[in-house]
Amino acid sequence: MTESQAPAFEGALKQLEDIVQRLEKGELSLEDSLKLYEDGIRLSRLCHTKLDEAEGRIEQLLKDQRGEPVIDPKTGRPKTAPLAPAEE
Fold first, then answer.
1. Model confidence over 61-80: pLDDT tens digits?
2. CA distance 78 to 67
3. Residue 29 CA: distances (Å) to CA of 36, 39, 78
4. What region, left, alpha or beta, does residue 65 occupy, with left being phi > 0 and alpha being psi -120 to 50 degrees?
5. Could you read off the pLDDT of 23-58 as tens digits, one per residue?
6. Model pTM?
7. Where are the domains of the chain?
8. For the chain, where are the E strands, in sequence order?
9. Do the Cβ atoms of 74 and 53 come closer than 8 Å?
C-alpha cells in the first residue's frame, strides 16, 4: 500500500474498530480471523504512526524561538496546549 492509498487516521481507526467487533463475535473461520487480525495490526501501526507524526507537529508548535520546549510554570513540564498568540 502506498502512502497515497493509506487511509486517513479516522478511516483507519474506523476500519480497526470494525475488525475488532467482527473478531469479538467469534463467528469467523480461523483463516478469516487470522487475515482480519493481520489487517488490524497493519491498521494499528498506521494509526500509531499518524499519532506520532501529529505529536511531533504539536511539539514543534510548542517550542520557543530558540527551539526549546516551552515549560509550564505550574507543572514544570513542557506545555501541551497551544501557545497564546504573541502580543505586538
1. 777 777 777 777 888 777 76
2. 12
3. 11, 15, 48
4. alpha
5. 999 999 999 999 999 999 999 999 999 999 988 888
6. 0.66
7. 9-61
8. none
9. no
